[in-house]
Write a structure and sequence with these properties.
By secondary structure, the chain is an alpha/beta fold. It is 21% helix and 30% strand. The protein is globular.
């Protein structure tokens, strides 16, 4: 088996597209990000290291923060020059190459090529797909040699091939053993050659991981902070590191009620008798020197007397009197039951790092350092409203064809739980003037505007036209269910600006888009660290078959419960329609079915996110 950390992933970039106006294809924008960035995002989880190969200088590719390896061969040799450069520079035993203009490359590309290479004991593996010949109607195999996993030890063969004046990517391997790995989705290996192809891909929507990456890359935390008394800082986000002014504990102390002694007095074959010379209480250091053959009665947390390095718990003492105790020679090991000074935290070390949410444990830690006030980020100001002529507010009579607006209340709960300062702007009707006025008004008061509804392709959805006047939008659609229509961008009005998160209109879609896309975005804006912003995935077995369409991420409502075998299993709540809000009240988790997954069989492991603390 090949470990992914033994593979360097190399993006072959820097090529100029003839039908793209001689522009660098890797830097062409898709959903507001360079094509190479999309490739990088899909490749990164599959390999241990990453690099980019270019024909000349690093240029714009340096911004990705990866090693950039210029071609060293004279002339424009295309991907073969990149392969040569990669095999020269890579320090791993394997190199995986992919082109910079194939943003849909399979998420399991490295794993499947590695499996094929190992099974056939080959030197390199390439991806192949099967297609129907338009003329004959027969099935033909199409190799994709640029999608190649190769042993870096094959460099001498490539050198020999190039020295002979050969330049073809498909035949460079010569006598080396090649294996072909069949992939079903030939579209994953397509590259972008024309503006029409780029536009068509733009219209298909964005993968969830890429949308998450764009959101993470496009924002910076609010700069303003405030100093709060510790009791008022609960569940706020630290704006600066907390440096410990003291060591915790401040002295070596006892971890037990018992007797402090010299570890050197232990051992032998007979019981040990020690003279009790002092009693030491917590907060009252001893005043007597404890010598060899002596001990001191000591309580939990009390300062260890000089020279003593061990504590025997009182329940292990065989005989105890006011003046002497008797213990077994091997009842403890030397050094047992002593806490060292600074064992928890040394003076001058960071106690908590900025970006940490101050929960109960964090408040207690700060209090243990004697710190009374802490710097926290200011609260994030979020304006939100629902759009739609069909919506009624609670308390109003429900007209024919109308529904009560539930989205504002789920958003209110989710935003309040995050600790945002919320501005509920009510319902905005499907009228361009009303929607533009609401966006301009929210822009003047909020850091972020969240809408529900109005971002699909319906005839009454005016958001796109309005945003074209007020700002820019990075993406409109995401390949996820529920929640495909979602907008992200930035708008400005009269010198004020705000981020826009346009959520879908269906109630479950609103919650799914919020938890997996809006929530981490808001937390990063609030200054939270990456671990806090991301939702932890747990893995449990599926109780029954779960149907799933490949090519999109799906979030299905689930119930985790312990089965008769004592193991945790998860099952779906039933119908998964995006308007069935009741299912969210029945579920205790969301089942996360990733883009590459198909149907899940009973017993297969699936990822879940627990709702505890979320809803």
């Amino acid at each position: 088996m090949i470990n992914k950390h033994d593979i360097t992933g190399l993006i072959l970039a820097g090529g100029l597209g003839t039908r793209m106006g001689q522009r660098d294809k890797g830097m062409l924008l898709l959903h507001g990000q360079p094509l190479a960035r999309h490739v990088l995002q899909r490749l990164a989880p599959q390999v241990g290291r990453l690099a980019i190969s270019v024909h000349a200088e690093a240029g714009d590719y340096a911004r990705f923060g990866l090693p950039v390896w210029p071609d060293v061969l004279p002339g424009q040799l295309g991907p073969l020059a990149g392969l040569h450069s990669g095999m020269q520079h890579a320090t791993t035993p394997y190199l995986l190459t992919v082109p910079c203009d194939s943003p849909l490359l399979p998420p399991d590309l490295a794993a499947r090529l590695a499996t094929g290479l190992m099974q056939d004991n080959a030197d390199l593996a390439i991806a192949v797909t099967e297609e129907i010949d338009a003329v004959t109607g027969s099935t033909v195999r199409r190799p994709h040699p640029v999608f190649c996993l190769v042993k870096t030890s094959a460099l001498p063969q490539l050198d020999t091939y190039l020295a002979a004046g050969e330049r073809r990517m498909r035949t460079w391997h010569g006598h080396l053993k090649l294996t072909e790995v069949l992939f079903q989705n030939h579209g994953a290996f397509g590259n972008i050659n024309t503006p029409d192809e780029l536009a068509a891909l733009q219209a298909q929507g964005l993968s969830v991981p890429m949308a998450q990456a764009i959101l993470a890359d496009s924002i910076a935390p609010v700069a303003e902070s405030e100093q709060l008394p510790l009791p008022q800082a609960f569940e706020r986000i630290l704006a600066a590191d907390i440096i410990s002014p003291i060591s915790v504990p401040a002295h070596d102390n006892s971890a037990m009620d018992g007797y402090a002694l010299h570890g050197a007095d232990l051992g032998g074959d007979t019981p040990v008798t020690l003279t009790v010379v002092d009693t030491i209480l917590a907060g009252r250091p001893g005043t007597v020197t404890v010598r060899r053959g002596q001990c001191a009665r000591i309580m939990t947390g009390a300062v260890m007397p000089d020279g003593c390095d061990s504590v025997v718990p009182q329940e292990l003492v065989q005989q105890a009197g006011e003046l002497h105790i008797s213990i077994a020679p091997d009842c403890i090991r030397p050094g047992d039951n002593r806490r060292f000074m600074g064992e928890d935290l040394m003076q001058g070390q960071p106690a908590l790092l900025q970006g940490k949410i101050l929960g109960p444990a964090e408040l207690g830690l700060v209090a243990s350092l004697g710190i009374a006030t802490v710097p926290v980020r200011r609260r994030l100001r979020v304006a939100f409203f629902s759009t739609g002529d069909e919506l009624c507010s609670i308390g109003e009579p429900l007209a024919a064809g109308c529904i009560y607006d539930s989205n504002r209340y789920t958003l209110l709960g989710m935003l309040t739980r995050l600790g945002c300062e919320v501005l509920d702007m009510g319902i905005v009707k499907d009228q361009p003037q009303a929607l533009e006025a609401a966006l301009r008004g929210a822009c003047a008061t909020a850091d972020v505007i969240i809408t529900s509804g109005g971002v699909s392709s319906g005839a009454a959805d005016f958001t796109r036209d309005i945003l074209a006047r007020l700002g820019n939008v990075a993406f409109w659609q995401i390949n996820m269910r529920p929640g495909r229509p979602m907008a992200f961008g930035q708008i400005s009005s009269e010198g004020d600006s705000a981020l826009l998160l346009g959520l879908p209109g269906n109630p479950v879609a609103v919650m799914a888009a919020f938890y997996f896309l809006a929530r981490p975005t808001l937390l990063r804006l609030m200054g939270a660290d990456a671990d806090t912003a991301s939702l932890p995935l747990l893995q449990v077995a599926a109780q029954a078959t779960i149907r799933k369409k490949r090519g999109r991420t799906e979030y299905q409502r689930g119930i985790v419960e312990r089965g008769a075998d004592g193991r945790q299993h998860v099952r779906v709540t039933g119908a998964q329609g995006s308007g069935i809000l009741r299912s969210m009240t029945q579920a205790n988790c969301m089942i996360v079915l990733h883009e590459a997954q198909g149907h899940v069989a009973a017993g297969d492991p699936v990822d879940i996110v627990l709702f505890h603390g979320l809803i």
